[in-house]
Amino acid sequence: MISSTLLPPSVNLESVRLEIRALQPELVQWRRQIHQCPELGFEEYLTSAFVSKLLTRWGIEHQTGIAGTGIVATLTGQTPGPVLAIRADMDALPINELNRVPYRSQHEGKMHACGHDGHTAIALGTAHYLAKHRQNFSGTIKIIFQPAEEGPGGAKPMIEAGVLKNPDVDALIGLHLWNVLPMGKVALRSGPFMAAVESFKLLIMGKGGHGAMPHQTIDSVMVSAQIVNTLQTIVSRNVNPLQSAVVTIGELHAGTRHNVIADTAKLSGTVRYFDPQFQGYLQERIEQTIAGICQIHGATYDLNYWQQYPAVINDRRMSSFVYSVAQGVVETSNELLPDYQTLAAEDVSFFLQQVPGCYFFLGSANPERDLAYPHHHPRFDFDEIVLQMGVELFVRCAEEFGRSFPL
Hints:
The chain is α/β, with parallel strands linked by helices. Helices cover 31% and strands 27% of the residues. The chain has an eight-stranded mixed sheet. A four-stranded antiparallel sheet has the order 10-12-8-13, covered by helices on one side. The protein is elongated.
């Protein structure tokens, strides 16, 4: 527990009910235990067993083994009502942790570097509180512990396994701890909130030779350089400047020696956008660009392009609902960001294609404690005081949803 003198102005612990504040040591303990044992997508066996053990201890009905390692906990209130789903992800990343903390990763080359350990702890705290206070909400709360958000994607397999059925979910909410924002800020948006993401791998095939005799070769490096530069014009000259899209080349590997013209080059990249109308269009323009440049220089290519996650598009009514609930938790309205967007991606989008919902960010950075490294950084960590705020937000949504539905 940290001193209140280190809390940023956006943190209003007085708005967190005493029983949830008292749960903070357990929230920290759960989060740290999960943090120490990070597991990659669809390998979350220890995490899943830990979650199931706690849910069993608390007498909460739940189903395990969904899409491999997923869990769905079901809590029913004392009066009939709608069904609200709360989603949390459990997987880690293939990153070697550099933090020197007692709870650092014990699994070499794996790390919770995106806050999913916190998401799972918050969902557990929510389940723990609601199970003890069923009289405070009506209807049913389904808490979805999802594997493999970081890849290859666990939301879609869980949907296909029926997690939104029996009983049918009326709406879904979820949060992401967000080190881009100071701890305690709540950011959301009606409509496109996070980007769709597509990826590609490209092999350029030329003709190698001596660096002193380029006329005898087809230079795969030169062809790749032109492709990298020209791909940027797809966004600058094909996308409306009032819209957003990104084409990024993250890898380029070619050559073995300074005086050898490489016969092949390997590239990989990512494409991101908000507007669903770009699905298919950007892929087509990318391949046209690659094909044209290769044809000019006599090279050939092999392009492997795939769609990963669609855009996260929040429902208008559910966004307004979450916003109204958050007003009672943050210190002032200045700590609510109602029109926030990022070109990061999240597979919660598959859930939001099926049911109306709202995904939102809860600021978790505290520079005063050197807890402001970005997501996916080997020194990523967040201020754990935010865990109780996450529970408070989820609990209030659960309690209010039954009274407000239909919105």
